């Protein structure tokens, strides 16, 4: 358990002086006092005439490819609840993640910083206390903070819920009808001065796409079954069952991700059967997205039933996306070690009509590091002045009070965890050819400005040299045609900035401390399919 240090927040220093309080007690005192006059001095910074929302919900799921969502061009029947939610919300169309690995990406969302400051270069790792997390900021501003942290790579145990009292933490997915959540809603009804900040992170969409052993007995006949017919995909339940068994039992993550075609041939599948396998995997992923829509829909419906939906600030986003099978990606059915658009483009939908955020599609580039300062800006929550986030507050642009910013989104690959690097199969993998050592110099990086993306990465060839590539996401959303031209001033300038970004990452890297029990680390890696 850790909280803000006095040097980072003068309010905490004042609360502790002369009172015999330690920092944990002080932060709880500030949270309790925030619903009364004691909170007024630092809530007076709320921009505009709107009052701060009394309920703030950050719904941050995992492995969500934005293109499967109706607001981002996906099938309406796949995500009807998210579509309904987005209809009255601000939709950020070009929202980018820091990284395709959860521990890193959640660290950027929760801290507003990137790896050179939050210090997470792979996962699972304990995040330090030298950056202010979103839960700490809202607790200090008078919100009672809660964390439904069901993601093992960005969990309460790993420090991702700093500022949250232990009794306000649940290692579970936030679902409608949860008794603690209902208690929050009851208190909002009863006390007009009460404010609550709720954070949830979890995954139902991470490869391998169904870990539910009862999937075929329950899901295919239950409410989570997709609209439509398997036959339209050239599938039947038995074929789907067989392909799912191959995915779950017949290959390691190295085999299915790094040598997909060879693995499918090893299974004895011909070209037609291989196409069916890919259709099965996409069906499983779509089922998972549909299930996620139902989970979110349950919460959204409950807020509507309680009359709280339009008076609250609700932010829906994800840590990273997911690739399935397509040409042009080094790794299929994965995300952590590539910089594909399916991985880095994630949803960001903000509902806050009572605080001046109307229904609008915003085309400017935004980043995971902008989530914290934007939510704080909307709610009038001050952030540390001595150690501010790297991201920017977009609230004025979302309210129509300022021109959209011109931002560059920087992203990078993760490092190979030493536990993974120690297993024999790693030595025979594509991952090893790209990352033969745990060295930050080997990380790939990319920068997005508008619809132009420039990357500085190593290829899969034997030479292993870094090279620049560039893509136009407007004309080539799947990045199939490299358009890099060293004579193009836009490409050249982005590459200069990109190399400087990588230099910061490399310079700031420190070998991780042995801060997590080895058995727990292995258990978490196995739980998400990184180890067999």
What's the number of extended β-strand segments?
Answer: 12
Give average pLDDT, whole number. 85
The termini sit apart by 31 Å
- The low-confidence parts are 1-49, 219-223
Shape type: globular
Task: Give the spatial strand order of the biggest sheet.
Answer: 4-3-5-1-6-7-2-8
Describe the fold and architecture.
35% of the residues lie in helices and 13% in strands. The protein has 20 helices and twelve strands. The protein has helices at residues 10-16, 23-33, 40-43, 80-87, 102-111, 115-118, 134-140, 179-190, 215-218, 237-249, 253-258, 260-266, 271-305, 341-344, 371-379, 395-398, 418-421, 430-434, 489-508, 518-527; strands spanning 55-61, 90-96, 144-149, 169-170, 196-202, 313-318, 348-351, 360-367, 408-412, 445-449, 452-458, 466-472. The strands form two sheets. The protein has an eight-stranded mixed β-sheet with strand order 4-3-5-1-6-7-2-8, sandwiched between helices. A four-stranded antiparallel β-sheet has the order 9-10-11-12, with helices on one face. α1 (10-16) packs across α2 (23-33). Residues 1-49 and 219-223 have low confidence and may be disordered.
């Amino acid at each position: 358990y850790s909280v803000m240090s006095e040097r980072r927040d003068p309010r905490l220093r004042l609360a502790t002086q002369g009172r015999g309080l330690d920092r944990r007690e002080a932060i709880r005192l500030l949270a309790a006092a925030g619903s009364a006059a004691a909170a007024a001095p630092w809530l007076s910074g709320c921009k505009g005439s709107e009052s701060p929302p009394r309920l703030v919900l950050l719904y941050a799921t995992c492995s969500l490819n934005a293109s499967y969502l109706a607001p981002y061009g996906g099938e309406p029947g796949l995500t009807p609840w998210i579509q309904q939610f987005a209809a009255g919300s601000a939709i950020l169309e070009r929202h980018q993640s820091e990284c395709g690995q959860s521990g890193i990406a959640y660290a950027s969302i929760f801290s507003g910083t990137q790896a050179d400051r939050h210090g997470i270069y792979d996962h699972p790792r304990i995040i330090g206390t030298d950056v202010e997390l979103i839960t700490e900021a809202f607790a200090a501003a008078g919100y009672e903070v809660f964390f439904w942290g069901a993601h093992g790579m960005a969990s309460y145990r790993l420090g991702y819920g700093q500022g949250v009292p232990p009794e306000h933490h649940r290692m579970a997915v936030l679902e409608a009808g949860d008794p603690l959540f209902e208690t929050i809603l009851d208190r909002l009804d009863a006390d007009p001065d009460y404010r609550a900040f709720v954070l949830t992170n979890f995954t139902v969409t991470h490869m391998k796409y169904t870990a539910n052993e009862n999937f075929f007995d329950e899901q295919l006949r239950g409410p989570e079954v997709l609209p439509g017919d398997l036959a339209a995909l050239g599938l039947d339940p038995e074929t789907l069952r067989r392909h799912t068994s191959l995915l779950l039992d017949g290959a390691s993550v190295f085999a299915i991700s790094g040598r997909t075609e060879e693995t499918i041939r090893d299974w004895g599948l011909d070209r037609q059967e291989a196409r069916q396998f890919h259709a099965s995997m996409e069906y499983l992923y779509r089922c998972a997205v549909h299930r996620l829509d139902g989970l979110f829909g349950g919460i959204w419906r409950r807020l509507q039933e309680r009359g709280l939906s339009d008076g609250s600030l609700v932010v829906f986003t994800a840590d990273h996306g997911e690739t399935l099978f397509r040409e042009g990606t080094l790794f299929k059915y994965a995300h952590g070690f590539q910089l594909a658009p399916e991985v880095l483009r994630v949803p960001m939908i903000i509902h806050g009509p009572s605080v001046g955020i109307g229904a609008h599609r915003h085309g400017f580039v935004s980043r995971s590091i902008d989530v914290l300062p934007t939510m704080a800006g909307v709610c009038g929550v001050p952030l540390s002045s001595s150690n501010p986030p790297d991201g920017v507050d977009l609230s004025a642009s979302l309210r129509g009070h300022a021109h959209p910013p011109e931002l560059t989104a920087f992203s990078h690959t993760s490092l190979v965890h030493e536990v993974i690097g120690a297993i024999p199969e790693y030595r025979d993998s594509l991952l090893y050819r790209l990352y033969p050592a745990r060295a930050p110099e080997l990380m790939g990086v990319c920068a997005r400005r508008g619809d132009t993306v420039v990357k500085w990465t190593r290829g899969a060839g034997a030479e292993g040299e870094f090279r620049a590539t560039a893509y136009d996401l407007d004309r080539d959303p799947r990045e199939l045609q490299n358009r890099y031209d060293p004579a193009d001033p836009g490409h050249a300038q982005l590459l200069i900035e990109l190399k400087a970004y990588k230099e910061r990452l490399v310079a700031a890297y420190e070998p991780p401390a042995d801060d997590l029990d080895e058995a727990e680390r292995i258990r978490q890696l196995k739980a998400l399919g990184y180890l067999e």
